[in-house]
Amino acid sequence: MKIRVLLASTAALALAACGDANDQAAQQNAESDLPAATDTAAPALDAGLPTTAQEFAAMQASSDAYEIEAGRLAQENATNQAVKDFGAMMVKDHTTSTAELETAAGQAEGVTVQKQMNAQHQSNLDALRNAGANFDRTYMDQQVRAHEQALAMLQNYARQGDSQPLKDFATKTASVVQGHLEQARQLQQQTQQQGQQTPQP
């Protein structure tokens, strides 16, 4: 009798273990069906939305610095003339943005502007420098993502910021960035189509 109970218990444990293995296999298969990440634009700019005047000034200055340097690279390395022209516009408009940011920060108490990129913007720039033949598409993919992030930051600070001069700056700059984003999306589609049409070696 004891032997039968022992055998029954052993069989039950074996079935349970098999069930667990099947569940794990099913979960792994489900995970393998998820789309793989295909972002060629380097790490996304997910530093979060700034909540203070100094945080906002630092993030905006970093965004401007990235856009200026990336725009210069686009002028040098892009093969599509429209992408080169977009890069030139980024250098011009974000140089203006930096000057206006400095003016607004000067009117805000205790806010300083340092023209340097944070780690995420620097990582994006490094990826762009190493893009090679995929430069145009990589640049425009980055530009769409960067302008989406910048627009969200500006709109949020314009609504909830703690410094009126910087809120005014954010409101004005958001409309410019919105225009940049619309153009970036159009050029992104063009560069994606060109990539699809390029014959494979």
Structure characterization notes:
The chain is mainly α. The chain has a single domain (53-195), classed as Up-down Bundle (Ferritin), CATH 1.20.1260.10. The chain has 6 helices and no strands. Helix 2 (53-77) packs parallel to helix 4, helix 4 (119-129) packs antiparallel against helix 5 (135-160) and helix 5 runs antiparallel to helix 6 (164-197).
Summarize the structure.
It contains 6 helices and no strands.
Write the layout of secondary structure elements.
Layout: H1 2-32, H2 53-77, H3 81-107, H4 119-129, H5 135-160, H6 164-197
Helix pairs in contact: 2-3, 2-4, 2-5, 3-6, 4-5, 5-6
Distance between the termini: 73 Å
* Tally of alpha and pi helices: 6
Q: Name the poorly predicted regions.
A: 1-47
| Overall number of domains | 1
How much is the radius of gyration in Å?
A: 25 Å
Structural class: mainly alpha
CATH class: Mainly Alpha
Strand portion = under 5%
Mean pLDDT: 81
Query: What is the CATH homology-level superfamily?
Result: Ferritin, core subunit, four-helix bundle
What percent of residues adopt helix (DSSP H or I)? over 70%
Strand tally is 0
* N-to-C series of helices and strands: HHHHHH
* Shape by Cα distribution: elongated
Largest sheet: none
User: Can you tell me the CATH architecture?
Assistant: Up-down Bundle
* Topology-level CATH name: Ferritin
